[in-house]
């Protein structure tokens, strides 16, 4: 994929709207980009989309899991005044919500722009200014004067609300601004790895999985893994970028390369798989770093517990400001993640997997 095509692809992945439980448009986009290379495409009953690239019989099944849902909100209540109360889907911090532009997807699919109401500081007490407002006390203003006006626009309780953030390439030409990098970026990696394997002789069967409902409890990863029955799995996600003023001096930073995750709050990486992936990265000259984030989890948290256990680890990309309206990633880090997973998939066969598994017992 050429750079111009890739940037357009990433724009589409960022800007498509799909919070947890409302991922249909994101799944359609994922499918569009794998249809030319996948041998077959399946779905589980929660809506995760699963694109298979067949290998040889008797060889391992590798699952590349990137969740396609994003954090957002649902319409909770419509006030008589026309203001809309909303409920968070996924983890939000009140500080990053006020005064932001959002888009409501009405029941018939059309979009309505709104803004999260924020009072100016004039006349506020010091206590009010210093307090983080809770989301339950916030509202969305769509510029109408009554509940009837809202309903005429087709908005009803339960409709999806997403951040409104157009994609941009930033001033260094490498930093990419967008919404939903958590985790459309990981889903994009899975898509590109599948595309890279077109016409390539590989042993393992590879499944690029666009999973759903990760942000509300890793739900899609569980059902997708049960459907796929992988021997090896990689969750592809974003992680903290520790390059901000006052941040701890941890190695994951924009431009540091793809991050090999030692553990997070939901999984400890399979050590044999971790060592194998690092070996491939060294041999292929891929820029990488290490990640250890004890808070939060990824699709790995559910995948590795399926059946009698799945050999699993997380591959991450450093990201600034995720779980907000805007986040930043580095284009080169994304490319390194795609290269690494492509090479790992090409190198994995039944004998390699047997050696990886043996590290647990011998």
Keywords:
2 domains, single chain, Elongation Factor Tu (Ef-tu), domain 3, eleven-stranded mixed β-sheet, 362 residues, alpha+beta, six-stranded antiparallel β-sheet, Aminopeptidase
> Measured on Cα atoms, how large is the radius of gyration?
21 Å
* Total discrete domains: 2
CATH superfamily of the largest domain: Zn peptidases
Q: How many H/I helices? A: 10
Reported by name, the CATH topology of the largest domain is Aminopeptidase
Low-confidence parts: none
The CATH architecture of the largest domain is: 3-Layer(aba) Sandwich
Order of helices and strands: HHEEEEEEEHEHEEEHEHEEHEHEEHH
Largest beta sheet, briefly? 11 strands, mixed
Number of strand segments: 17
Distance between the termini: 42 Å
Helix/strand-derived class? alpha+beta
Q: Percent of residues in helical segments?
A: 25-40%
CATH class of the largest domain: Alpha Beta
Report the mean per-residue pLDDT as an integer. Answer: 96
Strand content: 25-35%
